[in-house]
Design brief:
Blueprint lengths: L2 H25 L3 H6 L6 H13 L6 H9 L3 H29 L6 H8 L6 H33 L3 H47 L5 H8 L6 H6 L3 H8 L9 H9 L6 H32 L10 H9 L2 H39 L5 H23 L6 H25 L5 H20 L16 H18 L8 H14 L1
Length: 498
C-alpha cells in the first residue's frame, strides 16, 4: 500500500476525532444534549446522518456484491429501501418529533413507549431496552468484523489490529461527543460516501468505449435486464421489497427524527435525505454492474464479489484518492457503529439503570454512565467480532428484521391508533421478535432448513406484531389515557408557544 494512501486515512481519522472533541465542548452538559443533541440538529445533518447510519458498509460492499453475483434482481431490494425510507419521512418523522417532546421530553424510543402507554410497571420500557441492547450488540459486532476484514484485505494488517483501530476511533468520538458528535461525523461520512459512489462507477466506466459494449460484457455472467425482472418469483419479490418495512422500527434511524430542531425542518431533511439515498444506491448498483463487466473484459478473478469497490479503489485511482475511497468504506462502517453504540448506551442508562435502580442521579452522573455504557457495549461487541467467521450480511439482515418486526408496528400504532394499552405494546414487541427468531432458526422445512429460506422473516414478524397489538388492545379493557387527540392538542399548544 502506497504511503499516500495511509496519509489520506490518517487525515480522515484525525478529522473524526476533532469532531468528537468539538462536540464534547458543545453538547454534553446534560443527558438531553448527550443523547439527542438538545433537539437542535439541523435538517442537513439529520438527513445525511440518518442515511449514513442506515446504509453502513453494505452500501459500498454488500449491494455492489449482490449486483455482481445476482444481477438486476438486486434492484427490487433497492426500490424497497427507497420506498420504506420515503414513507418513514412522511408518516413517522413529523409525529414522532412532536410526540416524543410532548411525552415529557422522552429521550429514547423505550421511554416514549412507556409514557405513551402510561405503563406504571415500565415493562414495555425495560423489554424494549433489552431488545435494543441485545440486537445492537450483535449489529455492532457485524460492523467491527467488516472493519477488521477491510484492514486485513486492503492494508495487509492483522485482522485483530484492524478491529482494534476501527473500534478505537469510533468509540473515542462517540464516547466524547455523544449524539452531536455522532451526527456531525455521520454528516461528513455521508458526504464522503456520496462522492465515492459517484466517482468509482464513473471512472470504471471509462474502461469501455460505450454502454452497449459494457453491457455485453456484463451479460456474459448475469441475465439480461428483461429476463431478470420477469423471472423473479412472487415470494422473492415480496421478500426483496419488504426490506422497506424495517425502517419504521430502526432505533438508530428514527432517533434522528426526535433530535431535529423543528417539525418544519423535516420536509427539508426528507428532500436532502431521499436525494442522497437515491444517488448513492444507484452508484452502488452501478459499481457492481460495471464491476462484473470489467472482470469479464479483463478476465479478472474475484474471490469475494463484495470487495469490488476495494479492487476498483486500488486499481483505477492515484494512491491519495485511493485512501479517500477506502475511507468511504470506513465511514460507512463507523457511522452505523457509532449510532448503534449511542442508542445502546442510552437504553442501558436511561431505560434500564434509571428505571431499575430508581436512584436520583444528576445530569452529569447520567452522562458519565452513558459513556461507560458506550465502552461496555463496544467491549462486548469486539469480543463477539473476534470470531471472524461471523456472516456480516446475515447478522445485519437478521437484526434489521428483528427491529423492524419488534418496534415497527408499535411505532406506527402509537402514532396513529387510539386507545392502545401497555399490555398490547408489550405483547406486540415480544410477538414480533419471537416470530423473527422462529423464522430464522427453527428447522421446520425438509433437510433442516428454516422458513427464512423461503420468505424474509421481516414479513411474518411484522404481521404477527401488528395482529397481536390490534387484538390485545381490542380485548384489553384498560386503554391508556394518552390518546392521539391528547398528543396532537399538546403539540399544537407547544407550537403556539414558540
Amino acid at each position: 500500500m502506497h504511503y499516500l494512501t495511509y496519509i489520506s486515512l490518517a487525515i480522515y481519522f484525525l478529522a473524526m476525532l476533532a469532531i468528537g472533541l468539538f462536540a464534547y465542548r458543545r453538547s454534553t452538559d446534560d443527558v438531553s444534549g448527550y443523547i439527542l443533541g438538545g433537539r437542535q440538529v439541523s435538517p442537513q445533518v439529520t438527513a445525511l446522518s440518518a442515511g449514513a447510519s442506515d446504509m453502513s458498509g453494505w452500501m459500498l460492499m454488500g449491494l455492489p456484491g449482490a449486483m455482481f453475483l445476482v444481477g438486476f434482481e438486486t434492484i427490487y431490494i433497492a426500490f424497497g429501501l427507497l420506498l420504506g425510507a420515503l414513507v418513514n419521512y412522511l408518516i413517522v418523522a413529523p409525529k414522532l418529533r412532536v410526540y416524543t417532546e410532548v411525552a415529557n421530553n422522552a429521550l429514547t424510543i423505550p421511554e416514549f413507549f412507556a409514557k405513551r402507554f402510561h405503563d406504571p410497571s415500565s415493562h414495555v420500557r425495560i423489554i424494549s431496552a433489552i431488545i435494543i441492547v441485545i440486537f445492537f450488540t450483535l449489529y455492532t459486532s457485524a460492523g467491527l468484523v467488516a472493519g477488521g476484514k477491510l484492514f486485513e484485505s486492503a492494508f495487509e494488517v492483522n485482522y485483530e489490529l484492524g478491529l482494534v483501530i476501527t473500534l478505537g476511533v469510533v468509540v473515542s468520538y462517540t464516547l466524547l461527543g455523544g449524539f452531536l458528535a455522532v451526527s456531525l461525523t455521520d454528516f461528513v461520512q455521508g458526504c464522503i460516501m456520496f462522492i465515492a459512489l459517484i466517482l468509482v462507477p464513473v471512472v470504471a466506466y471509462q474502461e469501455f468505449s460505450n454502454a452497449d459494449k459494457m453491457m455485453n460484457f456484463a451479460y456474459e455472467s448475469i441475465p439480461h435486464f428483461g429476463d431478470a425482472m420477469q423471472n423473479v418469483t412472487l415470494l422473492g419479490l415480496i421478500s426483496a421489497l419488504s426490506w422497506g418495512l424495517g425502517y419504521f422500527g430502526q432505533p438508530h434511524i428514527i432517533v434522528r427524527f426526535m433530535a431535529i430542531r423543528s417539525v418544519s425542518d423535516i420536509k427539508t431533511a426528507k428532500n436532502i435525505g431521499m436525494s442522497w439515498m437515491t444517488v448513492t444506491i444507484i452508484g452502488a448498483l452501478a459499481t457492481g454492474l460495471v464491476g462484473i463487466a470489467y472482470a469479464n473484459k479483463f478476465d479478472m478473478k474475484l474471490s469475494d464479489p463484495e470487495t469490488i469497490f476495494i479492487v476498483f479503489s486500488e486499481l483505477l485511482f492515484h494512491p491519495l484518492i485511493s485512501g479517500f475511497l477506502l475511507a468511504a468504506i470506513l465511514a460507512a462502517i463507523m457511522s452505523t457503529i457509532s449510532s448503534q453504540l449511542l442508542v445502546s448506551s442510552s437504553s442501558l442508562t436511561e431505560d434500564i439503570y434509571r428505571v431499575v435502580s430508581k436512584k436520583a442521579a444528576s445530569e452529569e452522573e447520567m452522562v458519565k454512565l452513558g459513556r461507560f455504557g458506550v465502552a461496555g457495549v463496544a467491549i462486548v461487541a469486539s469480543l463477539l467480532a473476534l470470531d471472524r467467521s461471523n456472516s456480516i450480511l446475515s447478522l445485519v439482515s437478521n437484526a434489521w428484521a428483528g427491529f423492524g418486526a419488534a418496534f415497527g408496528p408499535l411505532v406506527l400504532f402509537s402514532l396513529y391508533k387510539k386507545n392502545l394499552t401497555h399490555k398490547a405494546a408489550v405483547a406486540g414487541i415480544i410477538a414480533g421478535a419471537a416470530t423473527v427468531l422462529f423464522w430464522i432458526y427453527a428447522p421446520v422445512l425438509p433437510e433442516g432448513k428454516a422458513l427464512s429460506s423461503m420468505l424474509y422473516e421481516m414479513i411474518p414478524g411484522f404481521m404477527a406484531s401488528s395482529l397481536v397489538i390490534w387484538g390485545v388492545s381490542a380485548l384489553d379493557g384498560d386503554p391508556c389515557e394518552n390518546t392521539i387527540e391528547t398528543f396532537d392538542e399538546a403539540g399544537r399548544q407547544l407550537a403556539e408557544q414558540r
